[in-house]
Amino acid sequence: MPLALLALAIGAFGIGTTEFVIMGVLPEVAGDFGVSIPTAGWLVSGYALGVVLGAPLLTVLGTKVSRKKMLMFLMGLFVVGNTLSAFAPTFGVMLAGRVIASLAHGAFFGIGSVVAAGLVAPEKKASAISLMFTGLTVANIVGVPLGTYVGQSAGWRVTFTGVAALGIVGLLGVARLVPETGRPDGGDVRSEFAAFRNVQVWLAMAMTVLGYGGVFAAITYITPMMTEVAGYSAGAVTWLLVLFGAGMFLGNLVGGRFADRALMPMLFTALGALSLALLLFTATAHNKVLAALTLTLIGALGFATVPPLQKWVLDQASAAPTLASAANIGAFNLGNALAAWLGGVVIASGLGYTSPNWVGALLSGTALLLSFLAAFLDRRTRSAGRVVAGSATAEHIPAAAQH
């Protein structure tokens, strides 16, 4: 494994920790600033919005800069944002710090995916991408529970100070280990936007929004589901989230390995199984053991879709992959926001705490249908290309030879 992948994984670990740890310390933050829990929830929503906007914006602004320098800048931005959050005197400053940190999120994973894929042989690209995303999944196993514990015992400001320190480690790792490769192919904004002329890029982002959104429909409301339906105590939710993170970790590795061998079959399998698991969750949520197992399975299947989806975007936007890759990371967060909202709608309608699982199954099932469409269009394009190539070859064969 190239050591540069380790540096990218460390950065991903810090980003994953700051994205999700706020959910564990939200009551403490709200209490310190004297705001309500729903108001404090803007620290989650503001971060997600910053990812969606920052991914394409900063990627476009970085088209004239080498990818290594851009990754260093993004980690620096991450450090500034989390430091501002840690020492924020008011809630507004804390929110600003969250948004600043979030701006680095999408572009880091988007550019990092391109860098990771370029460090290895073509047949290992998805595995390299999954290794970088391992940092994000490990954050949900270690970083988020540890940050929540520290925040509840020593104060949430200590948590964000620690996250900022992680960012510094990531910055130094990128500076030291990531090779100084060239600038994004094409080197200008127009070449990057040209990738969006390919309908496959849009299909991939739609699959990302709907597929991973299906996971968040369930996980956003996991606390009331596990406490009110399954019968767990509130304190047990932290360990349930560790199980979910462990599932993410394993699913990410499996998704990367098999996507290198058979990308679309891996995507079909993961999305289909995810839809079924979410449907089952409406029933298994009523049993403690089965609920925990299903939650782990949903984490695994949900993140098994990440490497193939990200590689599919890179393959389809091969001429100018950086912006498309970053936009796809934004699509993950757009899916999170959409699914969380839809899940809240069905709960507010009186359908119960397990009803978001039906929403998630519908979203993931729709993503599966789109993946069938993407595969069909890809086969048709390849067949047309072979026909054209064959015709061109025949035209260059002398008439006598053809007889």
TrEMBL record:
| Keyword annotations from UniProtKB, A to Z | Cell membrane, Membrane, Transmembrane, Transmembrane helix
Is the keyword Cell membrane assigned to this protein? yes
The segment(s) forming the Major facilitator superfamily (MFS) profile domain are 4-382
Check the record and name the Pfam families matching this protein: MFS_1 (PF07690)
According to its record, how does it sit in the membrane? Multi-pass membrane protein
* CDD domains reported in the protein's UniProt record: MFS_NepI_like
Segments spanning the bilayer are 42-61, 73-93, 99-121, 128-150, 156-178, 199-223, 229-250, 262-283, 289-309, 330-352, 358-377
InterPro entries tied to this protein? MFS, MFS_dom, MFS_Efflux_Transporters, MFS_trans_sf
Location(s) in or outside the cell: Cell membrane
Indicate what this protein is called per its UniProt record. MFS transporter
